[in-house]
Predict the structure.
Amino acid sequence: MAMFEDTLFESGHQIKTKSKYFTFVGVLLNGSVIAALILYPLIYPEALPKAMMATMLVAPPPPPPPPPPPPPEVHVQRVVSEILNNQLTAPSHIPKTIKMVKEEQAPPSAGAGVIGGMGDGAAGGVLGGVLGSLGTGPAPKVEAAPPKKIAVSSGVMQGNRIGGEMPEYPAIAKAARIQGTVVLQATISKEGTIENLHVISGPPMLQAAALEAVRTWRYKPYLLNGEPVEVETQVNVVFNLGG
């Protein structure tokens, strides 16, 4: 009997030891599987279903806009005219209150026939005649003011020259055999005198003699539309050793 009890005790002890072992192994396997399921998508994200990821990552569509407000109601009131065939008819009902309307004085109708040109009144006839004459009369002449200064060629102004000294050939330039043309810019006044004279080009040895002589020149006044005007022109003074 004692031997049978010892055998049962040893068997129970072995069963308890094996059950603890299997429990530990099962927990370890379950933990490994769970850890693998968690870590595998983190290490290899491409293994996740793309459709599910797209659904999770795409933002939901915005809510639809609210419906537009209903249009305002338009009440149409029918107005029945009391005039039929240009004749005033009796009203269908008598209003309880009568609104008094004060008519303002109408403006005078004296100018009603003014534009026609032949009104009955004196004011209409006179004003109409004045307006009619303005439309049929000759247009007023507008004369433009003459310009203060105009440009004229040297050839034209040479023909208007009426006096002045001839330039003297400088001795030093003649000895150096220097000849040429001195071009001067000048303003000829309304009276024909020389103003604002200065050299444009020419041999330096001949410029002083040309300036001294041209300052004494006189011209006929240049007329534009019968009025004398100032003239801007060039004066060419030629120095030639051959005479």
Notes: The chain is about 35% helix and 20% strand.
